[in-house]
Write a structure and sequence with these properties.
The protein is α+β, with helices and mostly antiparallel strands. The chain has four domains: about 5-200 and about 340-440, FAD/NAD(P)-binding domain (3-Layer(bba) Sandwich); about 200-335, Elongation Factor Tu (Ef-tu), domain 3; about 465-550, tRNA uridine 5-carboxymethylaminomethyl modification enzyme MnmG/GidA (Arc Repressor Mutant, subunit A), CATH 1.10.10; about 565-615, GidA associated domain, C-terminal subdomain (DNA polymerase, domain 1), CATH 1.10.150. The chain contains 21 helices and 22 strands. A hairpin with a 6-residue loop joins strand 16 (about 290-295) and strand 17. Helix 1 runs parallel beside helix 9 and helix 15 crosses helix 16. The model has no long low-confidence stretch (mean pLDDT about 95).
C-alpha cells in the first residue's frame, strides 16, 4: 500500500509543515502523517505570527525558502512593525491572521509541493533496527518505511487537557492525544519530561462593547514577512485593548482552590513569559490590573481571542471574571480557556542538525524539544527537514551559527543549555542582534538556501538586485554634497544643530534624529538620485550607513568568538579521563558532547577554566 519514503514527517503543525515542505522541495520523497487532515497548520493558540524576535525568525524562515512568511502575508488581517521607536535591531514584524485562512493557505501550498504525500492516521511507534530509524507504525497497523523520520508531535504526546477539576486526554480541545511514542523512546534510553501550556477562552465579538476599549489599528503600510512579492490585504481589522481590575482578580481567586495548577494536578512547568491570568495574579499581587488584547480571529468571524487571559480555572469562574472586564459586561463565551500538559524530550539529547544522538535518522522539531510558539516550532521544522534530506544523501549538514541567525541561537541554546520550561525566543538571547536584524535576513541566508536548492532563482535574483542597489545608494550618499542653506531649515524643524559648511549626505545621515527619507524630501537633488530605488533598498542602505560603527564592532566580536567555534571536539573525546575537570563539568560535557569548544563554553555549569583545561588536552 505504501512505497518507501525518503522522509516521513509525523505531525502537521507549524514544525511538521515546514519540515515536509523543506524535505520535499529539496527532492526527497516525503510523507506527512497527521491525525487530522482538517487541522493542518492550525493556529492552536493566538491568531498571530511574529512579534519581538519571533518576527525575525519568520523572516529568516522565508529567506531560507520556507513557507511561513508567505502564508502569513496571505492571511494577514492586521500588520504592525513593533519597536519602531528603537534601533533597527529591535524592529520586529507582527501580524494578526485569519485563523482559518492561514490553515487553508498552508494546505494549498503543501498540496502544490512536488514529492509530498499525505496520510491521516496516528503514529504509535517507530521502526528501529540497530540504532537506526527506518520508518513508523500507525494506529491502523501500517508499517511505513523511510530513510529518515522527523517527529513534530506538538502538545499531543500523552496530552492531558485541564479545566478546573476536570481533565481528559487530548492534544488540543476536542482532539485526542497521541500515545505509544514516548513509551517506546523511553525504553530505548531517551529522557522525557512534562511541560504545560495554556490558552484563553474564545468569546463572541458581538457581545462586546468596543466603545469602552482602546482601539489598536495596524500600520499604514503593510511591510509583511516574505521577501517575495506576496498578496497583502488593502484593509485591516482593528484590535482592542482593555484591562482586568481588582474585582476581576477577586472573582478569579474564588476558583484558585479548584485550579489544576495550584492544586498540584499539573506536573509540567508552564511558560514563564506567557503565564496564565491566575499565575499573574499570584506572582504580581501588587498589581491591580493587567492588560488584555482583544484580537479578532479572522475577516468573516465574530470569534475573539482574549490575549492575556490564558486560564484553566473552572468555566463558571472564567465566565464570571470575564463579565467584570470593562466592555465585557454582556459577554458570551464560545469555549473556556484550558491548560494542556504534554511530554517533551530535553533537547540536550540532540545534535545541531536536530537528529537524536541515540538513534540515527530520527529528528525532533518543535514543542517535542521544549519550545513554545509557532515561530520557534516552524524554524526547527525547516532545519530538521533540510538535515533529514542532507543525511539521506550523505551531504554536509546545514548548521546555522549564533552569528548567522536567530535560528542558530535557538538551536544552540536548546542543545547546549537544554530547557526545563517552555523556551521562547527574545532579542536579548542573541548576542549579535545588531547583525541579525529582520530587514537583512535575505542578505544573510538566501545564498545558503539557494546553494542547497531550496531558495528559488527568483529569491536569489532579488537578493542580488538588493545588494547592488544598496551599494549604489551608499555611493550616492558618500558623494552627494549638501549646502547649509538647503538643510538647515530641516534641522531647525527637528531641533538639530545647523551646519555652517558643505557636508556629504552620508555624514548628515549619521545624526540619530535624521532619517534618509525625510532628508530626501527636503533635498530635491537627493530625491531625484534615489527615485529609481525601492523603499526596501533605501531603508537597508540607511541602516548600514547609520549603524556602520556598531555593525563593524559586532563583526569583530564574531571573529574573536569564531576562534573557539572552529576548534572541534572529536565525538570520541573521553571527558572522564580529564581528572583536572570537576565532576559536574565531566558529567555535563559527557552528556551533551559539545561539537566545539565554543559550544562547550555555553553549557550551563562550564566555566572559563574548564574551557582552558580542554584546550590544553586538545593540544591547543
Amino acid at each position: 500500500m505504501f512505497p518507501e519514503y525518503d522522509v516521513i514527517v509525523v505531525g502537521a503543525g507549524h514544525a511538521g509543515c515546514e519540515a515536509a515542505a523543506a524535505a520535499a522541495n529539496l527532492g526527497s520523497k516525503t510523507l506527512l502523517v497527521t491525525m487530522n487532515m482538517q487541522t493542518i497548520a492550525q493556529m492552536s493558540c493566538n491568531p498571530a505570527m511574529g512579534g519581538i524576535a519571533k518576527g525575525q525568525i519568520v523572516r529568516e524562515i522565508d529567506a531560507l525558502g520556507g513557507y511561513s512568511g508567505i502564508v502569513t502575508d496571505q492571511s494577514t488581517i492586521q500588520f504592525r512593525m513593533l519597536n519602531r521607536s528603537k534601533g533597527p535591531a529591535m524592529w520586529s514584524p507582527r501580524a494578526q491572521n485569519d485563523r482559518m485562512l492561514f490553515s487553508i493557505k498552508w494546505r494549498e501550498m503543501l498540496e502544490k509541493t512536488p514529492n509530498l504525500d499525505f496520510y491521516q492516521d496516528m503514529v504509535t511507534g517507530l521502526l528501529i533496527k540497530d540504532g537506526v530509524c527506518q520508518g513508523v507504525v500507525t494506529g491502523l497497523g501500517h508499517e511505513i518505511r523511510s530513510k529518515s523520520v522527523v517527529l513534530t508531535n506538538g502538545t499531543f504526546l500523552n496530552g492531558i487537557v485541564h479545566i478546573g477539576e476536570k481533565n481528559f486526554g487530548g492534544g488540543r480541545m476536542a482532539e485526542k492525544a497521541a500515545t505509544g511514542i514516548t513509551e517506546q523512546l523511553v525504553s530505548l534510553g531517551f529522557e522525557s519530561d512534562r511541560l504545560k501550556t495554556g490558552t484563553p477562552p474564545r468569546i463572541d465579538g458581538r457581545s462586546l462593547d468596543y466603545s469602552k476599549m482602546e482601539e489598536q489599528k495596524g500600520d499604514d503600510e503593510i511591510v509583511g514577512f516574505s521577501f517575495l512579492e506576496t498578496e497583502k490585504p488593502t484593509t485591516q481589522r482593528s484590535c482592542w485593548i482593555t484591562y482586568t481590575s481588582q474585582k476581576v482578580h477577586d472573582v478569579l481567586k474564588t476558583g484558585f482552590s479548584r485550579s489544576p495548577m495550584f492544586a498540584g494536578r499539573i506536573d509540567g512547568t508552564g511558560p514563564r513569559y506567557c503565564p496564565s491570568i491566575e499565575d499573574k495574579i499570584n506572582r504580581f499581587a501588587e498589581r491591580d490590573r493587567h492588560q488584555l488584547f482583544i484580537e479578532p480571529e479572522g475577516w468573516n468571524t465574530v470569534e475573539i481571542y482574549v490575549n492575556g487571559f490564558s486560564t484553566s480555572l473552572p468555566e463558571e469562574v472564567q465566565y464570571e471574571a470575564l463579565r467584570n472586564i470593562v466592555g465585557f459586561e454582556k459577554v458570551k463565551m464560545f469555549r473556556p480557556g484550558y491548560a494542556i500538559e504534554y511530554d517533551f524530550f530535553p533537547p540536550t539529547q540532540l545534535k545541531y542538525t536536530l537528529e537524536t544522538k541515540l538513534i540515527q535518522h530520527l529528528f525532533f522539531a518543535g514543542q517535542i524539544n521544549g519550545t513554545t510558539g509557532y515561530e520557534e516550532a516552524a524554524c526547527q521544522g525547516l532545519m530538521a527537514g533540510i538535515n533529514a534530506h542532507q543525511k539521506n544523501k550523505s551531504l554536509e549538514p546545514v548548521i546555522l551559527k549564533r552569528s548567522e541567525a536567530y535560528i542558530g541561537v535557538l538551536i544552540d541554546d536548546l542543545i547546549s543549555k537544554g530547557t526545563d520550561e517552555p523556551y521562547r525566543m527574545f532579542t536579548s538571547r542573541a548576542e549579535f542582534r545588531t547583525l541579525l536584524r529582520q530587514d537583512n535576513a535575505d542578505l544573510r541566508l538566501t545564498e545558503l538556501s539557494y546553494r542547497l536548492g531550496l531558495a528559488s532563482q527568483e529569491r536569489m535574483n532579488k537578493v542580488l538586485d538588493k545588494k547592488n542597489s544598496v551599494e549604489k545608494i551608499k555611493s550616492i550618499l558618500k558623494e552627494f554634497a549638501v549646502e547649509p542653506e538647503e538643510i538647515n531649515a530641516y534641522f531647525v524643524s527637528i531641533n538639530s544643530s545647523p551646519i555652517t559648511e558643505k557636508q556629504k549626505a552620508q555624514k548628515i545621515l549619521l545624526r540619530p534624529d535624521v532619517e534618509l527619507e525625510d532628508m530626501a524630501n527636503v533635498l530635491p537633488g537627493l530625491q531625484a538620485a534615489l527615485k529609481d530605488f525601492s523603499k526596501d533598498s533605501i531603508e537597508q542602505a540607511s541602516i548600514q550607513v547609520k549603524y556602520e560603527v556598531y555593525i563593524e564592532k559586532e563583526k569583530e566580536l564574531v571573529k574573536k568568538m569564531s576562534l573557539l567555534e572552529e576548534l572541534e571536539i572529536p565525538d570520541s573525546f573521553d571527558y572522564k579521563k580529564i581528572t583536572s575537570l570537576g565532576n559536574e563539568a565531566r558529567e555535563k560535557l559527557g552528556k551533551i558532547k559539545p561539537r566545539t569548544l565554543g559550544q562547550a563554553s555555553r553549557i550551563s555549569g562550564i566555566n572559563p577554566s574548564d574551557v582552558q583545561i580542554l584546550m590544553v588536552f586538545m593540544g591547543r
